[in-house]
Amino acid sequence: MTTAILPGCEPFEAAGGDTGVLVLHGFTGNPTSMRPLAEFLAGDGFTVSLPRLPGHGTSVADMMTTGWPDWTGAALDAFDDLAGRTARVAVVGLSMGGGLSAFVAQRRDVGALVLINPLVKPPAPEMIDGLNQLLEAGLETIDAIGSDVKRDGVTELAYDATPLACARSLFEGVGDVYESLGDIVAPSLLLSSREDHVVTADNGDDLVARVRGPIERIWLENSYHVATIDNDQALVQTLTRDFIRKVVAA
Questions:
Q1: Which among 192, 225, 230, 232 is annotated as catalytic?
Q2: Which of 50, 62, 167, 204 could cysteine-pair with 192, CB 3.0–4.6 Å?
Q3: Per the residue annotation, which of 44, 196, 230, 232 is the catalytic one?
């Protein structure tokens, strides 16, 4: 039985010019957190694809049937589809979407990367041990991690619980991404919120230290983790557009 997509969580596609932009959302989130950015880029003439990652935007139970191989597979499929329709493809990702963007850049010829508070580093071993202990004790979910937003009146439409088995799969996959950060040669823009309650700043620090391609880091001073719908939304949009224009669509 197919689980129904929650209203507003549908994927987004827009046909445009010969520069494609793949936009990837975060863990337990869905396309709503990235849709304003995707629509902004589409309005500027880019060909845009914002997929709904497997298990997201439906139900927590649905998500619990998926894991890192499903999410990376969907990201690669979406990239390959865009690459077949455009001359060059940039990849933009938030949080886990940033980790997926790095994964794609390690395996495909990516024109540019824009990473917004990306998760590219597994947590400390003691946290993994604690997660495994919870799973062994039979606990399937913990409190939600979504909607870390500073802007008044804005709430991210994310799941109200975090599936632990999915989190373990995510951390295992991100561990492999982290070990291969040196394989990333695409020009990259890293947007880091000064205050982020979900992803630690050392994720960005290690990106800057490890990637081989040129990377520019800009700090966001007025947003928490989900900066794409936070106080710096307009800034994130213009910085992303201008970087892709400069690097790919020049």
A1: 225
A2: 204
A3: 196
Is 56 an active-site residue?
no
For 74-125, the pLDDT digits (tens) are: 999 999 999 999 999 999 999 999 999 999 999 999 999 999 999 999 999 9
Using only the alpha carbons of the chain, give its radius of gyration.
Answer: 17
* pLDDT(226) > 60: yes
Count of Cβ atoms closer than 10 Å to residue 236 Cβ: 25
> Hey, what CATH topology would domain 12-247 get?
Rossmann fold (3.40.50)
| Bridge partner list, 14 | 48
Using left for φ > 0, alpha for ψ between -120 and 50, and beta otherwise, residue 100 falls in alpha
Does 25 qualify as catalytic in the annotation?
no
89, amino acid identity = V
SS3 199: coil
- Residue 196 annotated in active site: yes
The catalytic position among 33, 49, 95, 101 is 95
Q: Is 112 helix (H, G, I), strand (E, B) or coil?
A: strand
